[in-house]
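Practice problem: LpxI family protein
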Amino acid sequence: MATIPTMKTEAASAGLDLPPDARVGIIAGGGSLPVEVAAGSAGQGYPPFIVLMEGEADRLPELCRYEHETLALEAIGSLIPLLKRHRITHLVLAGEIKRRPRLTHLRPSLSLLAVIPIVVMALARGDDGLLKVVARGLEARGIKVMGAHEIVPSLVAAEGVLTKAVPQKSDWRDIEAGFAAAKAIGALDIGQAAIAVGGRAIALEGIEGTAGLLDRAKLLRGHGRIAGKTRGVLVKCAKPGQELRADLPSIGPQTVEAAHAAGLAGIAVEAGRSLILEGPATLSRANELGLFIVGLAAAEPAHG
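Answer key — structure tokens:
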């Protein structure tokens, strides 16, 4: 079975470079990323404190084994006091949070008054703008924000073909078209992924995320302009100038399954700026299904 070549980082070679008294916290959304980050932090001697976002990660038993509390989005005003109470010095934002807090339902508190300007500004700036504003707000209050890739560098996709299957000449045309399209919508803060078939982009990621994009491509196979066309590639890459400490583009076993169901030949991700979750399982499943996974040369430095 293929293994994931990893991007060489200081954390990979020397472990987490944190003070002995550092306390790592994880704001956990949905998916497997918070689980992998928590295990990576604990494995390096920093048992994490988990903030389980209600409705997203509060049902994951793998996270409940660590010290944790559940927090509703509408109680966001209590986040900083919660982190301070647990002496959190370093924080990772990991996993998908599918909805945003409804401002009319925010729970009033003195702490909320301090963060309302941050929340309002963040909501007005779109997804990546939101992450940048939140990260700056936390660091202004003495909490260092880290990326998941700094805790678990082995998640980061390396450059090159990572599977037994390799792209054909026609696939490279699709990869080029998909990469250009994904970067274009990323510049507009719309999404991180595109699907290309026959040398042109045929579907772009929107608010429905990558799973919805692949479902849409599957439906397109049966009718319209791509009826009868074969192969095709899903391309995911970071947005230009993206805040790399949160929301890096990622793929996992479910992505591979959905890409195969959509009739695609493979997946391309931006090396150094994308994550491969559940790496061994993801690559193993791709090999079983005959899909390729390739890491593309990054368009920007790996650390942004």
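Discussion: DSSP finds eleven helices and 13 strands in the chain. Students who identified this feature from the tokens alone can consider the problem solved.
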